[in-house]
Amino acid sequence: MSENSSPRRIRADAERSTARILEAAETVLAADATASLERIADAAGLARATVHRRFASRSALVDALAEQLSQRYLGGLAEARVKTAPPLIALHRLTEIVFDLKLSHRFAIQLSAALTPEVLDGLDLLFARLRDTEAITAVDPTWCRQVYLALLHEVHDLPAGSPTLASPATTDETEAKIDLLVRTTLGALGGSHGATALPLTN
C-alpha cells in the first residue's frame, strides 16, 4: 500500500459522508425547516459527531446546501448554453432544468443565497440576448430576470388540474407548467406572438 493511499481513502470517506449529510439535510429540511443537526445525522445514518465535524453549525450546513444548489444552477446555465444557443431554445431548456432542481432541492430552492452574482449574471445575459433578438421588448435584464423568477414560483405551485395548465400541446403537467411559464414570461416582457409560440420539447 502506498503512503498516499490512506490520506486519499480518508478524503474519499469524508466526501461520501458529506454527500450523505447534504442529501439527508435536503430531505429532512424540506419536510421540517426547523429540524436539528441531530435529526439530520439520524436520517443520514451517521454519528452526530461526524455531522458536527463536517459542519460546525446548522447555519454552516444550510450554507453548504445553498452552495451546492448554486453550482447546479451554474451547471444548468451551461447545459442550456445561455451564451451561445438561440435564446428562446436556451430559455426553454433552462426552465426544464430549473423545474427539475425545484423537485430535487425542495428546501434549498428557497434559499436566496443560492442565487449568487454569477448565477444572476447568467440569467441577465439570457434576457439581454432575448432582447437583442427582439423576442422581448423589455430593456432591463435585471427586471426581466425578476419577473421570470417571480412567475417561476407562481407557476410551479399551481395545483394539479388547474385550468390555467390546460394545453392542447401536452397532457403532461410539468411540460404544461414549463410552457406556461415561458409563454407568460415572454408575454409579460413584451414578446410577440411569434416569439412565444416555440413548440414544447419532448
TrEMBL record:
Residues 36-55 bind DNA. The keyword DNA-binding applies. It comes from the Bacteria. Signal peptide: none annotated. PROSITE patterns: HTH_TETR_2. One of its GO terms (molecular function) is DNA binding. Coiled coil: none annotated. Keywords: DNA-binding. Residues 15-73 form the HTH tetR-type domain. This is HTH tetR-type domain-containing protein. It comes from Streptomyces rapamycinicus (strain ATCC 29253 / DSM 41530 / NRRL 5491 / AYB-994) (Streptomyces hygroscopicus (strain ATCC 29253)).
